[in-house]
Structures are given as structure tokens and as C-alpha cells.
Design a protein that fits this description.
By secondary structure, the protein is of the alpha+beta class. It folds into 2 domains: 160 residues, no CATH class; 244 residues, Transferase(Phosphotransferase), domain 1 (Orthogonal Bundle). The chain has 10 helices and 16 strands. The C terminus is likely disordered. GO terms for molecular function: protein kinase activity.
């Protein structure tokens, strides 16, 4: 196995499943009952993702700071294919059975059982989760065994099975209903990153469109989530980071990372910029690149050109080229002004990164251990775009269905 193989499953408490007539339930009740079960196969030397949640929560309490709204809620976690460590945070999950369902690999009667916080327990003592772990463990054993007579040249890697149970179920960033929802998700993710770094002393190191989600909710106010903390780095860790080891999703990586420096917080903030650039080119109406209006096929070609081909060095060169071409987002009615303003702020944000990094360096030399100039500027930029898109949306509340959405029907342009 040569990757983390992350999978996500919808989960519902078996007691709820037995008690409810799912078909007759209101949407609010369903959303309140459903949880997310995530499994992945990190290398054994990587910290469990849950440990970053625990460190962050502890440091928030010590600093007497509030938890940002964009932090996912961890309910329970475990590791290994034979023994598990359960970290529950809510009493109602003590001894609760969960039924997880995914058509490709799980049967309807598969169930996961999560206990009160304990140091260790034998997974065989519990129903359901052992079935899931056994299945995944068998896959791991098979993939880690080279084919007879044809061993893989890279050799097998030892992997550890980790799982998390999260409270929130979310949709991806491409499914944002309008520019306000998109900008809100970006704002919330930046605020989580800021708190994670300044209070938690943790750098996320994998900012991507796939890791910025929008919580499913019946509330009219959208909420963004910054997920997937697996590749995070605790900056207080005495163990020095190895130069040349790069983490993240290549198409969104900072240009500076092509030289394999130590990963800094501002590298992640540049990734927020590239996420916005990618999403605007992919989904926004009225895109003009070098004076030419982009058709759906033209969008795909441009995304492949600037974000989809080559190694890290080649991708960095193409993204630099993108900064030199004229990109105009005229948009239409509801979101046009906010999208254009977003583009302007993105340009300013990117050109300011170098100077802001220098300012942070000065702040640190003056005794501020963690400078926050870049975080502040990034947050201000996205909050301004959020306000503009909100104002634009309010002007069209009378006929919401007729409004032109920034991300209306993502599949049509992808």
C-alpha cells in the first residue's frame, strides 16, 4: 500500500435506526442523527489525526480561547487492526452502536460500536467495528504482500488503520450554492487555520479544495469546516522536520515549496489563494482569460494547463504564468461584483505574501514568537469578499431560485 487510502462513511446510531422510520423523518432530524466515520491508512510513524484535535483542544483551554466554528467535532477515534483506543467526547456515545453504510464495501447490517473513553479494549468484544476493521485489515495484508514472483520494486509499506467518528456531515466546496456560501466557507477555514497555528501551535500543511467543506445544515447561515488534519505538524515538537519532505496537494501548494523548505504557516495561506483561483476558473460565470471567454471545455483545458500537469516544479512554473495573464471575472447579476472583488483581493493577497512574511520575521525578532500579519491580512481579505457576496445575495432574495449561482451545477463545467 502506497497511500493513505482515506474513505468516509455515513453513520447513524443503531438505536436511532431501529427507532426511526427513516422515510418519514424530517430533514432536520436526519441531519441531527447522521455522523461521519472516516478510515485511513497512515504510516506507523505518523501521529493519529485525533491527537492533533486533543492537543489543540487542550491548548485552547489553557489559553481560555473559544473554539472557532469551523473546527470539526471529534466524537471518537481508534487505531490498529487488532486493538483500538477510543476517545469519546460526549457521554451519549457511551456504548452506542453505529450502523455504517457504503454501497461499495459495506453491508446494511454492518455496525460500529463506540465505548466510553478507555486506554485499550479488544476490538473483538464489540459488534460491527470489528467486522469493518477485519475487512480493511485483510485488504492491508493483501496489499502489503508482494505478488508471487513479481515483488513491487518500491517494496511494501507498513500501514496502520486509523478511524475517526465526526459529528458533522458536509458537502464539498464545489457544491457551494452561491458566492456567499463559498466565501463563508473560506473565511471559516482561514479562521480555523489561524487559531490552529496561533493558539494550537499546529500547522495544517494540506490546504486544498477537498479539505475545505461546507457543513450540511438546515440553518440559513452557512458554515465552513477545515478537515483532514492527518498531515499536520506540531511546531512545539522537538523533533526537527526533515528538509525535502513535502506534504500537501500539489495543485494548491505554495510556489516556495518547490525548493523543499520547512513548511511554514504562510505556505498554507498561499494554498488558500490557489484554492480560490482554481474554484473561480472552474465554476464562476463570465470568466475571461487573456481576453477570451472560457467555454466549459476551455475551463477544463485551462485547469489542466495551470493545475493538472507535471511535477511540483512544473506546476509551480505554470501557476507563476497564470499570475501574469489577464484574468477577468465579469460574472452576472447576483454574484458578479463580489466575484470581481474576490479576484482583486486574491491578486493583492498574493503580491503581499513576501512583504508580510518579512513583517512576521520582524515581529518574531522583536519578541513575538508567532507573528500574525499574513493571517490577519488573509482573514480580512476573505471577510471583505464574504460581506460583498452577502450584500449581493440579499438583493436577490425575492427570487432566489432565479439567481445566478457562482457554483450552479458544478458538473456542467467539469
Amino acid at each position: 500500500m502506497f497511500s493513505r487510502g482515506t474513505r468516509c462513511y455515513l453513520a447513524i446510531a443503531k438505536s436511532d435506526l431501529d427507532a426511526y422510520n427513516i422515510e418519514a423523518l424530517a430533514e432536520e432530524v436526519i441531519l441531527e442523527s447522521i455522523r461521519l466515520l472516516k478510515t485511513s491508512w497512515p504510516k506507523p510513524d505518523r501521529l493519529h489525526e485525533a491527537k492533533f484535535f486533543h492537543k489543540y483542544e487542550e491548548r485552547l483551554r489553557d489559553a481560555k480561547k473559544e473554539r472557532p466554528r469551523g473546527v470539526p467535532t471529534l466524537l471518537a477515534s481508534g487505531e490498529d487492526v487488532t486493538r483500538h483506543h477510543c476517545r469519546g467526547t460526549e457521554n451519549q456515545y457511551a456504548m452506542a452502536e453505529f450502523s455504517v453504510s457504503e454501497s461499495e464495501s459495506l453491508n446494511e447490517d454492518d455496525a460500529a460500536n463506540f465505548s466510553e473513553p478507555v486506554d485499550d479494549f479488544e476490538v473483538e468484544e464489540y459488534l460491527g467495528i470489528s467486522d469493518l476493521v477485519d475487512k480493511l485489515g485483510a485488504v492491508l495484508q493483501r496489499l502489503n504482500s508482494p505478488s508471487e514472483g513479481k515483488p513491487d520494486q518500491r517494496g511494501p509499506e507498513t500501514r496502520r488503520l486509523d478511524w475517526l467518528l465526526l459529528k458533522e456531515v458536509a458537502k464539498d466546496l464545489s457544491s457551494a450554492s452561491d458566492s456567499y456560501e463559498f466565501a463563508t466557507a473560506m473565511c471559516d477555514a482561514v479562521e480555523v487555520h489561524r487559531s490552529l497555528y496561533e493558539i494550537g501551535r499546529i500547522i495544517h500543511r494540506d490546504i486544498s479544495a477537498g479539505n475545505i467543506m461546507i457543513a450540511l445544515s438546515t440553518s440559513e447561515k452557512p458554515r465552513g469546516l477545515l478537515i483532514d488534519w492527518e498531515m499536520a505538524k506540531d511546531t512545539t515538537d522537538d523533533q526537527s522536520e526533515i528538509h525535502g519532505i513535502i506534504t500537501g496537494t500539489m495543485k494548491y501548494m505554495s510556489l516556495a515549496l518547490e525548493h523543499a523548505p520547512l513548511h511554514q504557516a504562510w505556505h498554507d495561506l498561499e494554498s488558500f489563494f490557489w484554492v480560490c483561483m482554481y474554484m473561480i476558473i472552474r465554476h464562476a460565470d463570465g470568466i475571461n482569460l487573456c481576453g477570451t471567454a472560457l467555454t466549459p471545455s476551455g475551463r477544463r483545458n485551462q485547469l489542466d494547463t495551470y493545475f493538472g500537469q507535471g511535477n511540483l516544479q512544473q506546476l509551480s512554473a505554470m501557476k507563476r504564468a497564470l499570475l501574469l495573464v489577464s484574468l477577468d471575472v465579469s460574472g452576472s447579476s447576483a454574484f458578479g461584483p463580489s466575484t470581481s472583488e474576490l479576484g482583486k483581493h486574491l491578486r493583492r493577497l498574493y503580491t503581499a505574501f513576501t512583504n508580510l512574511d518579512a513583517i512576521d520575521g520582524i515581529l518574531k525578532r522583536l519578541g513575538h514568537k508567532f507573528g500574525n500579519a499574513i493571517h490577519a491580512y488573509t482573514a480580512i481579505s476573505f471577510h471583505r469578499c464574504q460581506r460583498l457576496s452577502r450584500q449581493s445575495s440579499l438583493g436577490h432574495t425575492e427570487n432566489r431560485q432565479m439567481r445566478t449561482h457562482l457554483f450552479d451545477s458544478a458538473t456542467r463545467s467539469s
